[in-house]
Amino acid sequence: MTAELLNLLSPAAAITTPAPPSGWGHYMSLSPQQQNSSPPQPPFHRRLSKRRHRPWKSQSLLPFRPIERQRQGIPPEVDFGDPVKAKSSQVFRLCYGNINGFPAVPHTNPKAQQLKHWFRHMDIDFFAGNESKINWAKMPPSGRLPELFRSENDLRTVAAFNSNESFGLRQYGGTFQLTMGQMAANVHDKGVDGRNLGRWAWTQFRGRNGRSMRILSAYVPCRSSGEETVYKQHTRYLRKQGILTCPRQVLLQDLRALLIEWQQAGDRIIVFLDANEDMTAGPFQQMLTGNGLHMREAVLMRYPDPRWRTTATFQCGDRSGRFPIDGCFVTPDLDPNAATWLSASHCPGDHWFLLMDIKMEALVGDNLFRVARPAARRLSCTIPEAREEYSRLLTKFLHSHQLLSNLHHLYQARQGDFTDIQAAKLEGLDTLRCQGMIYAEKRCRKLAMGSVDFSPAVADVCLRRWFWKRLIARKQGQ
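Above: the chain's sequence. Below: its structure in C-alpha cell form.
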C-alpha cells in the first residue's frame, strides 16, 4: 500500500496525462457528422516514419532521366563562315586541321592518299596539320612528307616532333606544314620550336619587295596521365631542365615571346592553334588577342555569331566537346578574302578544318607569275620497271600492226626515190610509230597523284600484300 502511494505521488505521475484517442477508436467515438468530415488517419509519427523509411524500389514507375542541356551551338553538319567557291590564280588558299595521326607505315600511307585527294578537290595551296603522331626520325625516306605528298607541283615541307625522346615509330603529338604549287618558290625559311618538342612548326614567305609573312601552327597538349602522352613528354623534358611549371603555361610563354619578336620585326602573322581549351575565352585566346599582339580570329571577325561559343570543333563518333578548341588568328594588317570553318563531317579528320583565302599581294606584296609546268612523265630511264614495260608494250604494238614488215616491203619496192604514193605510206607508218610510242608511255607506269577516292577496303588489301611480300623476303634472307 505504501509503494502504491509513493508511485502516485511521484513527479512523473503528476505530469502524466491520458493520451488522446487515436486511430479507429477515436474515429468511432466521433459523431456521424464528424466522421463524414474527417476520415480516419494514422498517428502523425507513424505517417512520418513510413515516409522516411519507404523503400526506393517503390518508385519504380518514375525512372530517373537526366535532363540534357540544350546546346545552342552551330549544328555539327553545317559549315560556319563564307561559302566555299572556286579561287582565282592570284588567291592563296590556306587550310588547317587536326588529322588525328598518320598510320605508321613506310609507304602507301592511306591517310596521306586521302589528304592528297582532298587537297586536289578543294584546291589547297598550303596545309597546316596537327597531331601527325609519327617519329619522323625513325621513318624511312619513302614514308616521309616529301615522298608522301610528292606531285607534279613544287612542294616544301616542315615537320615538328619530339626529337628529345625516341621510343618507336609511333609518337603522339607533332605538327607539320605543306606548301604546294606557286607559293613554294616564295618560301624563305622554315623551322620548329626551340625546345624540339614538336609544339609548333612555322614557314616564312618573302616577296620581291621584302615583305615577310609567317604561318605558325601549334598543338597544345591536354592534361593527361599516360606515360606516352604529349603532356608527359613535355613534363619529362622540362623536369630535366629544372622547370617545374606546367607544360601548357611554358608553351604559352614561349609562344607569346616568339610572336612578339616576329611582330616587332614587321612580319605579318597567321597562327593556327589546337589549344585543347575554350578558344573564345581561354588563356591562349586572351594571349593572342590581348595587349602586345592584338590578333583577331579570322572567321569571327567576319561573322560574329554568338553560337560559336558553344560549338564543339572536336567530334569523334559519339564524343564531342562543349566549345571550340581550335582557332585561327591573324594580325591586324591581314584581311582575308574568305574564311570558313568546315564541319568535321566534310573533312579527313576528327576536328573542324579551317579554309581561308588571301590574295597573294596581301601576303608577299606582289602577284606571282603563272608558271606553265609540263605534265609529269611516266617514262623515266632511271626506273628499270618503267623502261622494261615501255619496251614490251611498244614491241607488242609494232608487231600487232606489222609496222616493220610493211616498212621492209616498202623499201624493197622502191626504185630510186620514193614516189608520192610511197612517201604517203611511209608517212603513215611514221605516224603509226608515234602513236605506238604514246600508247606505251601512257601505260608503262602508274602515277599516284591522289586523284582516286580513298578506300579503306583497298588500303587494307594493299597493306596485307605488302606485309606478306616483306615476310617472304625476310624468310629468303633479303
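The longest helix spans residues 420-443.
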